[in-house]
Specification:
- The complex is a heterodimer.
- In chain A, helix 1 packs across helix 11, helix 2 runs antiparallel to helix 9 and helix 11 runs antiparallel to helix 12.
- The relative contact order of chain A is 0.19.
- By secondary structure, chain A is of the alpha+beta class.
- Chain A has a 6-stranded mixed barrel.
- Chain A folds into 2 domains: 177 residues, no CATH class; 119 residues, no CATH class.
- Chain B is of the alpha/beta class.
- Chain B has one domain: P-loop containing nucleotide triphosphate hydrolases (Rossmann fold, 3-Layer(aba) Sandwich), CATH 3.40.50.300.
- The longest helix of chain B is centred in the last third of the chain and has 16 residues.
- The two termini of chain B are 22 Å apart.
- Classes of the chains: A alpha+beta, B alpha/beta.
């Protein structure tokens, strides 16, 4: 019996029993649709997070004052990181292209006219722009002269520009921060979201000494960013920075560090680890759904083999070999699960798009769920169809034809 | 062409009580014969039919079909014989209920490897039994006589040498029965070997040879002079 005849016969008999065919397909459709949505959503989330990690910068090391494991800006009141630490690192660690100490001050009010906004103030040196690869889109960035003269110039992030100025050009205007007037000299390029979900465009940069002495009266810095010559040396640099700081701060393990040092690869790994766990969990869930779908198919097929005994007998009487009968039932199961898989994928993609639209969540549609769906549903087809097909083939023709 | 030697058939019931349906049947049927096997119901004539048709295997004895010893063939070879050499016709028609006349008649062709023009062959066979206008009807939309004619077309579609009919008129009225028997006579005139199992003397009388069975044995074998 040729393959084309086999497929035709199986297809025809499925079409004759549309209701049953649909019921058998349903389990697979639900399982595959779930799988598709899960993959699309987790991949979407992962892509977004990886984009944020990209925003962090691919070849940089960040040092932040204060111990612990949580990542994020340093607590302003932690005084453990100083400019002397920065000098020591600069002198003894190789492979640093740019080094940028900075302070971060969260939840600061900025006022322009009768409008105000909440922002993050960052005290920086000119190298900060190079270390972040993040420059002024319009106007100027903080210069050496701003630093040496403790100038009251500032550069605004785009979210703040939008909130305070709308469409008006802010350059040359005066804003008030902490009861001090600052002159806007530039606007930063748009940057997006940080790995921990902060809006990086609601920042205002001012000269580092201005922040330390004029505004906040501190002698410590919050953070330090290194931009490396060679991204392959991320781990090496991260380790040597840690050991220098431990030495300078007189920390001997297992004593806890009073600083945190991390790099983009480490952050990416953490993020991926979390979403990997999620993918595995949800993936298992949809596999269970598929498994149940397979069991349903196997059961309905057993019943169907019983109901179609007469048909099997008739086919045998007119020349069907035992294996023709077996192949027919197996191909029927395969057609059911494969088309269920295809329908499920399409449904899953539609649902993902719907979720993306309604819930404003990122989804990534890719070829992988489709391939997985086809492979899995064919596997389910073979596994669930095999036993019923064997039963059908082993029926005694004389017995079968009696019905 | 058909040669049965001392064929026995024993069924084991659930409580291991053995039932001897055939108790040593020897029989020879030559090419082109028209044979009626007569027996009361439940006396093993269907079993004999199934054995001749290679659908069932005897418990003992030997069966030669065209010189081949059938007992020694495997499932694939038996299926091939059923497909090419035998055309079955049943009392209850045994058509696939959800399929049209065309699809039912096409069935044996699905399992043969020949490179026949399928649609054309199926249509011409259905035309030859007078059903050219019922190609797309389902069995439930046809009369009993028409259904049996679809079944005959199905038996003929692969041009088998032997037609085996098990009570072919058992479910039909007199007119339809006569139509069916007329078809058998015509097929026999064309050279086909026909074996009919029946318990109706009127039907048996129309064959050229009548074999009477009782209690699993042949009790008479009469050639009717034409």
């Amino acid at each position: 019996m040729s393959l084309s005849k086999l497929i035709k016969v199986s297809f025809n008999s499925l079409l004759k029993y549309k209701g049953r065919t649909f019921l058998m397909m349903l389990g697979i459709i639900i399982g595959i649709a779930t799988l598709t949505v899960v993959v699309a959503m987790t991949k979407g989330a992962q892509n977004k997070i990886m984009q944020n990690v990209q925003n962090f910068g691919p070849n940089s090391v960040m040092i932040s004052a204060g111990g612990g494991k949580a990542w994020g800006p340093a607590d302003e009141h932690t005084t453990t990181l100083t400019l002397e630490d920065v000098t020591a690192i600069k002198e003894s660690v190789n492979g640093i292209k740019y080094i940028a100490p900075f302070t971060m001050h969260l939840e600061q009010d900025i006022v322009y006219g009768n409008k105000y906004a909440t922002c993050v103030i960052v005290g920086v040196t000119p190298e900060w722009a190079d270390a972040w690869q993040w420059y002024a889109e319009k106007g100027d960035f903080i210069s050496d002269e701003d630093v040496s003269s403790l100038s009251k110039n500032c550069v605004l992030g785009q979210t703040i520009v939008k909130e305070l100025f709308g469409n008006q050009d802010p350059i040359g205007e005066t804003v008030r921060i902490n009861n001090t007037n600052f002159k806007v000299i530039g606007i930063m390029k748009k940057r997006g979201t940080s790995p921990i979900g902060m809006d990086m465009d609601s920042r205002i940069t001012i000269p580092l000494p201005t922040a330390m002495r004029r505004l906040f009266n501190i002698t410590h810095i919050g953070m330090l960013r290194l931009y490396l010559v060679d991204p392959n040396r991320l781990d090496e640099v991260t380790k040597s920075v840690a050991s220098i700081l431990r030495e300078r701060h007189h920390i001997t393990p297992p004593e806890e560090d009073d600083f945190r040092v991390t790099n983009s690869i480490a952050i990416a790994k953490t993020v991926q680890g979390v979403s990997q766990t999620l993918v595995i969990l949800l993936g298992l869930l949809s596999l269970v759904a598929l498994l149940i779908g397979g069991i349903v198919i196997a059961n309905i097929m057993f019943i169907s083999v019983n109901e179609r005994r007469k048909e099997i007998g008739i086919r045998r009487a007119f020349g069907a070999r035992a294996r023709d009968i077996m192949n027919q039932f197996l191909v029927e199961a395969l057609i059911i699960t494969t088309s269920g898989g295809i329908i499920g994928t399409i449904l899953g993609i539609a649902m993902s798009k719907g979720i993306a639209f309604v819930k404003k969540m990122p989804v990534a549609i890719s070829w992988e769920p489709f391939a997985i769906a086809i492979v899995f549903s064919m596997l389910v087809g073979v596994l669930s169809g095999l036993q019923p097909a064997k039963r059908a083939a082993s029926l005694d023709p004389v017995e079968a034809i009696r019905g | 062409m058909i040669e049965l030697k001392n064929i026995t058939k024993t069924y084991k019931k659930d409580n291991s009580l053995e039932v001897n349906v055939l108790k040593g049947v020897s029989l020879e049927i030559k090419k082109g014969e028209f044979v009626a096997i007569m027996a009361p119901s439940g006396m093993g004539k269907s079993t004999l039919m199934n054995i001749i048709g290679c659908l069932d295997k005897p418990t003992g004895g030997t069966y030669f079909l065209d010189g081949t010893e059938v007992d020694k063939l495997n499932d694939d070879e038996l299926s091939h014989i059923r497909n090419k050499k035998i055309g079955f016709i049943f009392q209850s028609f045994n058509l696939l209920p959800v399929s049209t006349s065309l699809e039912n008649v096409e069935l044996p062709l699905i399992y043969s490897s020949g490179n026949v023009d399928l649609k054309h062959r199926v249509k011409s066979v259905l035309e030859s039994v007078g059903l050219a206008d019922r190609l797309h009807y389902r069995p439930s939309e046809l009369s009993g006589g028409q259904q049996q004619r679809v079944a005959i077309a199905r038996a003929l579609v692969n041009d088998p040498a032997i037609i085996l009919a098990d009570e072919p008129t058992g479910n039909l009225d007199t007119t339809s029965s006569e139509e069916i028997m007329a078809i058998f006579k015509k097929l026999n005139q064309e050279g086909r070997t026909i074996v009919i199992v029946t318990h109706e003397p009127d039907i048996a009388r129309q064959a050229k040879r009548t074999i009477n069975m009782k209690d699993g044995k042949i009790i008479s074998d009469v050639v009717i002079p034409q």
